[in-house]
Design a protein that fits this description.
Length: 157
């Protein structure tokens, strides 16, 4: 399974982080070439880079990490969630693969992000939940995961 992980974090302030680091990729859990593997991170901006990556390596699943909702500055507010929505729209233009959301912002407002982006799933718990979801997707049993419901899924560990 080819997994594309996209970091939508486009600024260095506040301190950047990525919840789904390559060290936590499902390959470590499942092992071997037959298990899911993560593609390198692709910056969501510009969206052209995301489209190029999808053309070169068509993913079976895409995970979008959303770190911040906004910059928490009432004098000069910046809404980062719009960048994530644009990146997912660019991805949807070139791929029908399921979209999984994750990251601190998604953990705070999973339903809102699912509605905004039209994503297939949201992981609101630890990164290990991503591995469980990917395994379930590979077996076509994602609807059986605890905390899931159609059409949007929010697995919780």
């Amino acid at each position: 399974m080819n997994v594309l992980i996209v970091s939508t974090n486009t600024t260095a302030a506040p301190l950047p982080s990525c919840r789904w680091a390559p060290a936590r990729s499902p390959r470590r859990r499942t092992g071997g070439p037959r298990g899911p593997r993560a593609r390198p991170h692709v910056r969501a901006r510009p969206c052209a880079a995301l489209k190029r990556e999808c053309a070169l390596h068509p993913p079976d699943v895409a995970g979008f990490s959303i770190r911040n909702i906004d910059n928490n500055d009432v004098r000069k507010p910046v809404a980062y969630y719009r960048d994530a929505a644009r990146a997912i729209a660019a991805f949807r233009a070139v791929s029908n693969a399921p979209v999984i959301l994750g990251g601190p912002a998604v953990a705070i407002m999973p339903e809102a992000f699912l509605a905004l982006t039209g994503a297939s799933f949201a992981v609101t718990a630890r990164a290990s939940s991503l591995a469980l979801l990917l395994e379930a997707l590979g077996r076509n049993t994602a609807d059986e995961l605890p905390g899931s419901s159609a059409p949007a899924h929010c697995p919780r560990a």
